[in-house]
Amino acid sequence: MSEAATHEATRTYDVIVIGAGPVGENVADRTSAAGLSTVIIERELLGGECSFWACEPSKALLRPVIARADARRVPGLRQAVGPLDVPAVLAHRDDLANHWHDEDQVGWLNSVDVDLIRGHGRLDGPRQVTVHTPDGGTVRLTARHAVAVCTGTSAALPDTPGLDLARPWTSREATSAGEVPGRLVIVGGGVVAVEMAAAWQALGSQVTMLVRGELLSKMEPFAGELVADGLREAGVDIRFGATVATVHREGREARMTLADGTQLAADEILYATGRSPRTGDVGLDTVGLAPGDWLTVDDTGQVTAIAEGWLYAAGDVNHRALLTHQGKYQARMIGAAIGARANGEPVDDTRWGAHVSTADHTAVPQVVFTDPEVASVGLTTRDVADSGRRIEVVDYDIARVAGAHQFAEGYRGQARLLIDLDRGTVAGATFVGPGVGELLYSATVAVTGEVPLERLWHAVPAFPTISEVWLRLLETYRDRHQPRRKPATHSSPKE
């Protein structure tokens, strides 16, 4: 179907999806595949934050940075590696973001028979949505079966005096800027903060990070420590325990005063201090919910506060896992669940059923694309106390694996498995080091599939690859529980 004309005042669909990022697109794809008439509403660009201001443009900035860092560790190659071609990096980023146009996304919607209405969609009572279109029109929609809110999140800014007039960067400006700032101050220590510090320092900025606590505070402590070492070696100035008291801008220069009285000046300030749900103006009040709140859902995506079961929420907006791939996973399950309910089919809501997002609780994978990389899935040691599970920690220095020496001279990295002692399975895995992102899917399969350790012994890693760290971790665990026996001594027979 083509983009829906907006002169029609009222329309009815089986399913209405608010938000056309990757999550909304996947919900719409699955409900359409189930034979349900579906419309999707978007006020900005189809493809959303991930395609234009987050995942894809940020990795386009980071890939040359990481590739150059890897090359500099290879004898015979490091001498040939020079500075980055900054205009070429930015131009490639622009190409991957399709120069902030979404025609290809519109073509994809047409191919899966989903209607599109551009405009600001708001709930207007049970199963009702009103869309205010860019041309000043209004379209009123009714859903026979479901409305799915897939509006994502936006940058959360603190209430710092002067910040509202200082024109700070958020993740959007950090991934789409057309020029390299001479001095960039980054406030925050999470994934966006460390990735953008790595990117812009390599592209020519002098980067200063202001971190109240620690880097990557939700991951294993050694992950933040190794990333901090890498950033410092690249030239980033990291200041821990720093709190911003005031901000103001004088012309092109931004000035900051820290709580201890320190003064800083910068060309740009990036605030990477968390995310807020985009639910402030989607009409939650018309169905008895509080605007601006996260939407709590069950494992099939139904908003638990709506007893009639017609309202769903997928992706960041439900606060389960603020990651694009995890939101798309939810969307596939939610779209299938909507289709099953609408078609009178049974809903498989068992633990690993076809209509539930169980992995939100057990196996959320994430890669931090810094130098070194961080890859993590499942539990960390920070989670163990709340898990109620008997966990044993197994660590191994990745630099001791033969494949690490092939990958880079002077390799530094760390691997950790969390073993569930009662189940005999892997409950979590974290890897830090160059190239470890490619280890993550195997770890995700092990955690999700609850593969017994006895079976993992038969998953043989190729030699010499970094994946051999799996064998070394298993050996470490085995040797801890099955100490080597000393060889028996045999006397010579008496004459």
TrEMBL record:
Q: Where is the FAD/NAD(P)-binding domain?
A: 13-325
Which intervals hold domain Pyridine nucleotide-disulphide oxidoreductase dimerisation? Answer: 364-470
Q: What class of enzyme is it?
A: oxidoreductase
> Which coenzyme or cofactor does it need?
FAD
A single MF term (Gene Ontology):
oxidoreductase activity
| UniProt keyword list | FAD, Flavoprotein, NAD, Oxidoreductase
Q: Which SUPFAM superfamilies match?
A: FAD/NAD(P)-binding domain (SSF51905), FAD/NAD-linked reductases, dimerisation (C-terminal) domain (SSF55424)
| Entry-linked PANTHER family | DIHYDROLIPOYL DEHYDROGENASE, MITOCHONDRIAL, DISULFIDE OXIDOREDUCTASE
Name the UniProt record assigns to this protein: Dihydrolipoyl dehydrogenase family protein
